[in-house]
From TrEMBL:
Protein name in UniProt: peptidylprolyl isomerase
Catalytic activity as recorded in UniProt: [protein]-peptidylproline (omega=180) = [protein]-peptidylproline (omega=0)
Gene Ontology MF term list: peptidyl-prolyl cis-trans isomerase activity
Broadest EC class assigned to this enzyme: isomerase
Chain spans, region Disordered: 299-331
Keywords associated with the record: Coiled coil, Isomerase, Rotamase
Pfam family, one: FKBP_C
Domain named PPIase FKBP-type: residues: 30-119
Enzyme Commission number(s) of this protein: 5.2.1.8
Coiled-coil regions listed in the entry: 213-242
Keyword Transit peptide: no
Organism: Paramecium sonneborni
Start-end of Basic and acidic residues biased regions: 308-331
């Protein structure tokens, strides 16, 4: 229902008459508004309009993007409200007018204005209290998760980092939010193949010592990154810790089995390599200890020099010869004794035969 015009400012420079009631909050300085409007002169000439409901005009209060009268009027309107405005030159285009829009100097303006919706201005981080920062971190986490679901991991990582910068609460709720964002960053880094960063974020989440479910996730994601950089022993330790928290978790059990198999294969391969190394000659001994070559110096006539080794060899040979001769003599004597004994036996046998014949 239409109402009478009311002054929005003391000097009467901006008046409004409500054509359609709105509801909800009223925008403030800095709010971003979506509006529809149509401006006319006193003679009914339309000099400006934006009535496309599909693409409403975006107007920020306090920036004087159109005229001062709009800033004043919008700060009195609710969402969905439609008004008629009467604006004097001081709050319109003033003494200069607007040649582009064909607005003459010192023109009075009439507008139909509708507020479609608005968003309150965002406070800067330093203007927020701890609770407001906590809420901003929650909002940014939601945006980051939306980007992650679209597999836009780089954008998600960027948003999560901003969200983390707003985590200032040291309460249980604050620590859980911070751990949640760090775990999200860990998986983003993993998808971007930034495995060391993935491990670091998982470690930071563990340090917060929050609930068991977050601890389980941190250990699991840390293990996955460790597998990628071939730190299998570390991964095994992480998965065993995760298994202690939840021994029924099928994903943890599966990865635990896989890491054990990878470790077994790695150890077998290592054993095979060392075995081959020990079987092979690692160096050529002849290069380290070359064969000794006997070099005899030529003896000059009348030289008194001699090789002491040669003397030892001569003495050795002489001794050997003597030993050989003695052995030969002994063998000859043994043979003579045996021959004499044989002859004596033969003689005795002959004598026995003769005695036997005589007896017969």
């Amino acid at each position: 229902m239409e109402t009478e015009f009311i002054n929005l400012i003391e000097d009467g420079g901006v008046k409004k008459r409500i054509l359609q009631e709105g509801q909800g909050e009223i925008p403030i300085d800095g709010s971003r508004c979506k509006i529809l409007y149509k401006g006319t002169l006193d003679d009914g000439t339309v000099f400006d309009s934006q009535l496309d409901t599909e693409r409403p005009y975006k107007f920020r209060i306090g920036k004087e993007e159109l005229i001062k009268g709009f800033d004043i009027a919008l700060k009195s309107m609710k969402v969905g409200e439609k008004v008629e405005l009467k604006i004097t030159p001081n709050y319109g285009y003033g003494d200069d007018g607007d040649s582009y829009k064909n607005v003459p100097k010192n023109a009075n303006l009439t507008y139909e204005l509708e507020l479609i919706n608005f968003k309150e201005p965002k406070k800067r981080k330093w203007e927020m209290n701890s609770e407001e920062k906590h809420q901003e971190a929650l909002n940014k986490r939601i945006k980051g998760t939306a980007a992650f679901k679209l597999q836009n991991y780089k954008e998600a990582q960027k948003i999560y980092k901003k969200a983390l910068s707003y985590c200032v609460l040291t309460t249980e709720e604050g620590n859980e939010l911070k751990a949640s964002i760090q775990l999200n960053l860990s998986i983003c880094c993993y998808q971007l193949e930034e495995y060391k960063d993935s491990i670091d974020y998982a470690k930071k989440a563990l340090e917060l010592n929050t609930n068991q479910q977050q601890k389980l996730k941190a250990l699991y994601r840390k293990a996955l990154a460790n597998i990628k950089i071939a730190e299998l022993e570390e991964a095994l330790t992480d998965l065993r810790e995760a298994f202690k928290i939840d021994s029924t978790n099928s994903v943890v059990i599966q990865e635990l089995s896989r890491v054990k198999q990878l470790l077994k294969e790695a150890r077998m391969k290592e054993k095979e390599i060392y075995s081959k190394l020990f079987q092979q000659k690692l160096y050529d001994e002849s290069e380290i200890e070359p064969n000794k070559i006997e070099i005899k110096e030529a003896k000059s006539e009348g030289s008194s020099c001699c090789d002491p080794n040669e003397k030892i060899e001569e003495e050795t040979q002489t001794k050997t010869t003597v030993e050989n001769k003695d052995g030969q003599l002994q063998e000859e004597k043994i043979e003579e004794r045996e021959q004499i004994k044989i002859e004596e036996n033969n003689q005795n046998n002959t004598k026995i035969v003769e005695e036997t014949v005589t007896s017969v």
